[in-house]
Amino acid sequence: MNRPQHPTSPPPLLTVEDLSVAFGQNTVIENLNFAVQPGRTLAIVGESGSGKSVASMSILRLADIAGARYASGRIMFQSAAGPVDLLTQSQEHMRKLRGREIAMIFQEPMTSLNPVFPIGDQIAEVLMLHEAMPRRAALAEAERLMSLVRLPDAGALLKRYPHQLSGGMRQRVMIAMALACRPKLLIADEPTTALDVTIQAQILTILKDLQRELGMGLIFITHDMGVVAEMADDVVVMWKGRKVEEGPVETLFAAPKHPYTRALLSAVPRLGAMTGEPLPKVSPLTVFDGEAPRILGEARVQDTARYEAPLLSVRDLSVRFDIRKDWLGRATHYCPAVSDVSLDIYPGETLALVGESGSGKSTIGRTIQQLQKAAAGEVLVEGRPMSAMSLADRQRLRQEIQYIFQDPFASLDPRKTVGQSIAEPIETHGLLAGRREIRSRVGDLLERVGLSADVAGRYPHQFSGGQRQRVCIARALASKPRLIIADEALSALDVSIQAQIINLFMDLQRDEGLAYLFISHDMAVVEKMSHRVAVLYLGQIVELGSRAQVFETPGHPYTQRLLSAVPVADPTRRPERTGLAGEIPSTTRRVGDAPALNKRIEIAPGHLVAAS
Amino acid sequence: MTGFLFKRLLQAAFVVMVVTLIVAWAVRLTGDPALMLTSGSANVTEADLARIREGLGLNEPFLVQYFNTLAGLFTWDFGRSFVGGTQVSLLIASALPATLALAFASMAVAILISIPLGIRAAVSRGKWADQLIRITSLIGLSFPNFWLATMLVLIFSITLRWLPPSGMSGWQSFIMPALTMGVILTATNVRLVRTTMLEVLQSQYIMVARAKGLSERTVLYKHALRNCAIPLITYMGLQFGGLLGGVVVVERVFNWPGMGSLAFDAVAARDYPVLQSVIMVLSLLIVSVNLLVDIAYGLVDPRIRTE
């Protein structure tokens, strides 16, 4: 598709000129300039703290409520009543523009809808407000909008409440709500970050189609370069409150000029980048921290797995959660979270568990870590069944198997220094005696994960997200584990930090001979660092094999679907997706109604695929 | 929801059983009513006392007496007052509406003042309006209710002669008693509204509501307030119990013909049937209010409704 490089005829829909925004003494945006053309998509890219969300909240003047001060600049908008400078408008006038001419979609679909009102009313509210529609007509229009965003059975959904909808459906409701008055400008702030890949692909397609249909200008805020490549016409890259680069998406990806953009693009894991490689590879990283970019690390093949005897085996594991009970407290409905799962983890190996929300991947990890009871099946450690172990032996397993969680902030005690947090497992398991020994071990561990030993006295809130995750890794290492279960441990991190942590994981694996059970929904990261991959769907393994087998010759339709949904960080290869409609079905079942179990067949040595 | 209600109903019945049992037992700890009734009069023989006990049903075993009282709850027959021999049910029938009217008026005062003030304080968090509201509510909390009642009477009835000083006659007579009890509830409620509101205002859906172009008023009073309702309803349900306790003092000061006055006189006269019945009816009332609170949860929050 040919797009004009320099659109000439229509004036820009929105022009941000020399915008500076401050909260108190803290300037978060400095002299920002960009323009949005009608019918085109501008992506604003940057990491947390880059000021990209503040920019969008300033356009809507919602940043005022948080106490923002506009130190300089203009935001010119071509409103229906002629051009206006949004920064000089009263809040009352802004309310007439919000939702009618400029609409916004937010990051968290789970919390964006008011839990106590039916969704039909929440959409209709916008129409009743701006178009003065009577309630009945507004609800009819809401129903039409909901079918426009491809929500099935829109009529019945009108009376439903947000908690009865999945995340993907809620985000579609949000889009319907934002588009209700056919706005000229739509701001989408990380609209798909919290969603599964197949749902993300659906939402992106809907947004693109509707933009074309309505001719809206779209500002798309994201940190995901794959999504940028897929959605954007033009890109603005922000770093610490400033614009460092801008340009058409093809140019920016082909020849990034600013070192930060280059570092950002080099950090993006690209699906398919490992094709033809038998083993995971560590690759050097470009890091930009304000001065000249530096190269960190070396290229190395991760040949650490020793396939002699498995370190840990899971045999026919099933886990279920009771959903509903009758009045005597007997379960009537349950969720078969994990059904009949068998897998082996070898020393020095990274086994990835991939799947979307509700696939049971975290439940497997929690069961191995004895945080969850199994309904059936067995976990064996070096051939010994866990159920036959003494209490002391099982306690010892808690030391040898460590868990790293998704949210590094929530998993550190805010009232303990990070040194105390790291020392705790050492003391609990009696690994070292004496304050001095423990302190020097904590210092070693901090240095091992790339922090300095003298940060031990600081508290979690004094660290950035990436540093906190490093602290969590140090704490996991403290008890000298043999297996680390990393449950979405990279998902909350910015890409450049994520790339550094991936390398840290791989370095530690080489040096300590660690095995990882790597739980993730991010296919590109999984491709980069795992030896073998298990794909889960509705609590069952649908495909299991070496990384090359699963990624290069995926045998199960769900694996293929999952792979095709991943955004490709290359604007010249925009995928035309098919067959991505539909939601993951509900898993609640009546007691006695067991799910049908997959039969797996071996299509190549070590490559198991569920026969459907 | 039905299963949930059924459970709560069983719990409520059990609570009423226990409360009435304790009341029936405790009332009898204070001594022999026959002796109390005849104290002061000369020439009381043992036969007289026995006749009085017989007449009052006091020579039945304790449990039989208890179950008679309990049965009275269902048949609306609480026996007769020791003093004057009026049917207790008639006394309660005239006192209960007066107390309920006063209680609801006080709750209304508390709600009408505390919700707008609490919201205002939350919205202007840390600014002077917030400070002022918080300090004023602390002052309100520090007033003992009998003192406040006396001051109101002094100002509005005696000095200004705007309002009747006592009794229940017309809407004017509600103002001072309702205000006295309402103000003290208001003080805690303002703080509760402020805290829950601050939390709700942080939510993403409030930002979404603002991004729709809704006015601040709609955002606060429609989108935010409904989400504050659960803690507020819970707390106000509990307050209702405290309110019925506080009613004794306030009714006394304003000479209000309600359950509080009835209880007060019954204590003074050792009129056990009246005292026991008043306490039973009040505890039944508190239990039913808390049952209503549970039902209200489901009405306010659809997430609880579908559980």
UniProtKB/TrEMBL annotation, chain A:
A GO term from the CC aspect: plasma membrane
Subcellular localization: Cell inner membrane
PROSITE patterns: ABC_TRANSPORTER_1, ABC_TRANSPORTER_2
MF (Gene Ontology): ATP binding; ATP hydrolysis activity
Main location: membrane
Root EC class: translocase
Membrane topology category: Peripheral membrane protein
Substrates-to-products reaction catalysed: glutathione(out) + ATP + H2O = glutathione(in) + ADP + phosphate + H(+)
Alphabetical list of Pfam families matching this protein: ABC_tran, oligo_HPY
Keyword Transmembrane helix part of the UniProt annotation: no
E.C. code: 7.4.2.10
CDD domains per UniProt: ABC_NikE_OppD_transporters (cd03257)
Alphabetical UniProt keywords: ATP-binding, Cell inner membrane, Cell membrane, Hydrolase, Membrane, Nucleotide-binding, Repeat, Translocase, Transport
Annotated ranges, domain ABC transporter: 14-265, 323-563
GO terms (BP aspect): peptide transport; transmembrane transport
Family according to the record: Belongs to the ABC transporter superfamily. Glutathione importer (TC 3.A.1.5.11) family.
Function: Part of the ABC transporter complex GsiABCD involved in glutathione import. Responsible for energy coupling to the transport system.
Subunit structure: The complex is composed of two ATP-binding proteins (GsiA), two transmembrane proteins (GsiC and GsiD) and a solute-binding protein (GsiB).
Protein name: Glutathione import ATP-binding protein GsiA
Native species: Paracoccus tibetensis
Lineage: Bacteria, Pseudomonadati, Pseudomonadota, Alphaproteobacteria, Rhodobacterales
TrEMBL record, chain B:
Membrane topology, from the record: Multi-pass membrane protein
Location relative to the cell: Cell membrane
Record's GO cellular component terms: plasma membrane
Chief place of localization: membrane
SUPFAM superfamilies: MetI-like (SSF161098)
Transmembrane domains' residue ranges: 9-27, 90-117, 138-162, 174-193, 232-254, 274-300
Domain of life: Bacteria
GO BP annotation list: transmembrane transport
Transmembrane recorded as keyword: yes
InterPro entries, A to Z: BPD_transp_1_N (IPR045621), MetI-like (IPR000515), MetI-like_sf (IPR035906)
Recorded family membership: Belongs to the binding-protein-dependent transport system permease family.
Protein name: Peptide/nickel transport system permease protein
Organism: Paracoccus tibetensis
